[in-house]
User: Fold this.
Amino acid sequence: MKTPNLKFILETIMQDQPKPLSIQEKRAFKEAVANFSAMGESVYGKGDIENIVERVKTIVEGADKIMTESDDWMANMALKKENKRMHEDYKDFSEAAMQLKEAQHRMSIAYENIGNHLNRFFEVG
Assistant:
């Protein structure tokens, strides 16, 4: 087996090196870093999840009361089945909202950590 020469070794090493960024890529990176903070609004979530869950709960409870006000016993029985499903859907909605809030919290911590790392080397806006 032939031993590789120095030129072959250098070419192999150079292939593994990432290509330098073009001026356009560097500008795009600089702009992205400068606008990093603007992404925080999406990461931190502007909407108040708990408030939305409470509002939906009020609507579900109100719908339940209004739909079962009738004096017709048979209609009320059918509506109670429908309303039971609506309450189950609300429970799923509420649980998903809590999971979303927890995931959003984890996401915001990771976002802050990324920002701290970037801040060490770049001017983050």
Remarks:
- The chain has one domain: 23-121.
